[in-house]
Amino acid sequence: MIVEKYITSSCLISKHAVYKNGKLLYVNKDTDVTGFLLLVYDRFDIKYSRFYKMDNLCKLGWLASEILLKDSYKKDNYRAQDIGLILSNANSSLDTDQKYMESVNDIPRSSLFVYTLPNVVTGEICIRNNFKGEDAFFVFDCFNASFIESYVNNLLDNNVLQACICGWIELLGDEYKAVLFLVEKLKNKEAVAFTKEQMNTIFED
After folding, report:
1. Does residue 168 form part of some domain?
2. In a domain, 127, yes or no
3. Is residue 1 a part of any domain in this protein?
4. Distance between CA atoms of residues 162 and 204, nearest Å
């Protein structure tokens, strides 16, 4: 059965700036990507020891999910299996793949090897939040809002999930962008309709 669905929260991290629901929360242009991700972690006063072990792609996606959910997600509304993640990017885990291959010339680094799959970021988000619903990570040439809309609609319309985090998490070298959406059947004051047009508008801001 087709039901109404809403983007109840969004988060964009790009060009050394963090936005939530279209509002600028933090900016710092005076550092590299790794330094910026650490500054964001400190700025939002997040405490999570696993963060320091993550590669940059995981840090980016994980931070975006933390900011997305903070003060927006009501955990008591859902069971663990009601929440899923549908994520995507263009370069898979290539940033870490390249770093791992460089390490092979000396001593292969197992700490890098464990991050040579893009869906590790979904795992890190699920572990943090105890999400046990369907999750998937897709690779496209660019952000494919039509595919995300169709896939997430199917999951929520058929009650496979009751809510879903979806979007784009891309990082390669100095170039990165994370845009995440919390999609729910329940409306809040920040809510906008869950459509490809709304996702594209937020993505391009």
Report:
1. yes
2. yes
3. no
4. 27
27 within domain boundaries: yes
Q: Which amino acid is at 115?
A: Y
How many domains does the chain fold into? 1
Buried b (16+ CB within 10 A) or exposed e, 184-204: bbeeeeebbebebebbeebbe
Residue written as token pair 């999609």: 183
How many Cβ atoms are within 10 Å of 86's Cβ, its own excluded?
Answer: 22
Tokens standing for residue 109: 């680094």
Q: Which domain holds residue 198?
A: 6-204
Render each residue's pLDDT in the chain as its tens digit; 205 residues.
Answer: 788 999 999 999 999 999 999 999 999 999 999 999 999 999 999 999 999 999 999 999 999 999 999 998 888 999 999 999 999 999 887 766 566 566 656 665 555 555 556 788 999 999 999 999 999 999 999 999 999 999 999 999 999 999 999 999 999 999 999 999 999 998 888 899 999 999 999 999 7
How far, in Å, are 6, 19, 54, 70, 115 from residue 51 at the CA level? 30, 20, 5, 17, 13
- φ and ψ at 183, to 5 degrees? -110, 125
CATH number at residue 37: 3.40.47.10
